[in-house]
Fold each of these.
Amino acid sequence: MRGKTRARSVAAVIATGVATALVLSGCSAGGGDEAPELSDKPVTLRFTWWGNDARTAASQEVIAAFEKEYPNITIEPQFTDWAGYWDKLATETAANDAPDIIQMDEKYIATYGDRGALLDLSTLGDAVDTSDFPDSALATGKVDDALYGVPVGLTSYSIMANPALLEKAGVEVPDDKSWTWDDLAEIGAKVSAAGGGAEWGVAPWGFEDGGLNNWARQHGDALYTDGEVSIKPETVSSWYQQLLDMVDDGTTPPASNIIEKQSGGLAESFTATNTAAFGPWWNSQLTALSDASGSPLQSLRVPTTDGKADGSAYYKPSMYWSISSRSEHPAEAAAFVNFLANSEDAADILLTERGVPANEKIRAYIEPKLSDTDKEVVAFLDGLSEDVGDAPAVTPPGGSAIEALLKQYTEQVLFKQLTPDQAAEGFIKDLKDAIANA
């Protein structure tokens, strides 16, 4: 039960740290609605993000461009992989030592924002220009009308396909506008049979909430409704059963291989190492996966139950730019966020690495400059435009525990320590507890 304990302790650390921060600060930095004044004295800011080597290189290049424009501001980079990012941020927040600029995720924005750890960017006047962002995109960064994050980019859940592995197995890339989960299982089984234990048809799911969210929407369900966990046990159980069936028949790798790969990050994944023909990923990861694999990968729509568009696809903010409410330099932090969100110099470097820009002006600016894979990222989202449904409800405070809980229960399903029904019941109970205790 280590996963459950860890998820609850992280939530407790955040809550304790933010409460302390609010007592000490009295109110968030940068209150009011006028842009704070920039200092002409030396200022040092800390900027944290998660990501792979490609993201880190691009981020450091953007920092250099910003520092050239603002020579009195120094940006100290702080980065890690996804697995360790949130524990570190929770600990820093509890110690009143959060970085000034934070790359924030949808699952955590209400948790941190609701407890006062993030600065309401709407109090900064025009220091962060959001005029080129559609209201629908900005709304995803709001909690009770406070803007706690500027959406960086948009992405959508997808299945990443490896055409070379499919060709090697003698099968064609499926028509993703009409394929079903049964088709995925059938094609995947053929690839695994041809792979002889070295290559498999389908990389597993079960370790993040994007896949569960999509599955729920396909089955007329939802993770959350009105700030409460609303997903039905049978929805979660069927999701796990689908995975377990593919493990049992060899369509996915064995459980031990799956767990080993999970610790290696994107570069060591089945997709990046060309050992699975299909894998669930956010479509914005196409370029990073293609670079890591050295293979021409292709984003496909997620299969549906009947092969028809059903509104289960949705656009998700890939991440946000947020500012710590404890930052001693809100003006300079806002200047950096504004540079990240609106500067053409930053756009030239970042392109679609963090998703197709939510800033419509910047998106139009970069389109002629995109690589072939980046163009595919944009085209995939454009192709979904008539079929996407409304975005899911924002993850409520405490819901950030979901990935730790999914990892815990997925591992127990894979090793048959729990049945899918038992895992579903336990997962829902623990997620409800995490939100109730937030």
Amino acid sequence: MTSRITWDEASARRYERQLLRTPAPSGTPVAEVVGALLAAHAQVLSAAELSVCLRLDGSTRQDVRAALWDDRSLVKTYGPRGTIHLLAAAELPLWSAALTAVPTGPSPHPADVRMTPEQEDRVVAAIGDALDGRQLTIDELTEAVVARTGPWAGDLVMEAFQGKWPRWRQVMHRAGQEGALCFAPNRGRKATYTRPPHFAPLPADEALATLVRHYLHAYGPATPQYFAKWAAAPRSWAADLFASVASSGGIEEVDFEGAPAWVVAGDTEFPSEAVRGVRLLPYFDSYAIAAQPREWMFPGAAYERALAGGQAGNFPVLLVDGVVAGVWHQRRQGKRTTVTVEPLGRLTTAQQRELGEQVERVGEVLEARPELVVGKVTAGAHA
């Protein structure tokens, strides 16, 4: 008999597994918390620090930085969707094999900018060789790649924000996903790169099946289409992947609000108590991005106010009872940070009190004295 799952039940379990209902106890390894999210979006490192620390009791951004730069249990590199994430270093064999097995579309670059497959392989190998045991800025890495490949790799042909980038940079995300590159601590204001610890990737089929199960454990029930969106993969490919994992008994179908969806096989227990409480989530927090259907996660006015063209993550969000109910923005000045919160509805006295506690926690994580302002957020998306 097919299990029937409601939105409230799914939301409550995701909330719990995302460590939003109860943060992990103090002393829990930071990498374990990141693993519960699968990955923490880190295009803006301070947002990733908030994503992690709001789920780890008593932690601050220094705990995340120690895991990244000191014990290296975390790696900052190119993860899902080819964007920068924090990943647990111990899971790199899984991530590398799975991400490099996700089909990609045709190159977005003009024909005279692209590299041949052989050139791409040479560049990725050169990146790994140049960064092995070293930390290089982007300019230093360019010199090292050109020296190992040829002048063609350094041709300034890629459109960039303020000029042109060298040709080789179009495979940076691939180098990250293959384990040839990750971020190192900044040198002043300059980003630097190094190579993560060497590892042997899992077999691709095993890695993809494992990633599907991990994804469904954290965010299920979900459909292949939701997974495809999360992974930036073709929908038909994701459907075939789910069918393959299902045929081996790894996942099972359930009824999710009247439509078919999937969970890990046997993982059909859901909380009966609905989500309650107020939470603040930063830019591109995994819960806001991965929890689907999006119109349920962003109900009513939230769909227009908190999404940018339908894309989640561009605004930090206020959660009330597990769904988006507002946006917020923090502006730091010295040792103080002003947290402006724009609720989309009236908050009860208890919710206002909990919001104040959340703002205090944001201040603790960022090591700043917070001030709460309730009012209109005037900053735009991803400001």
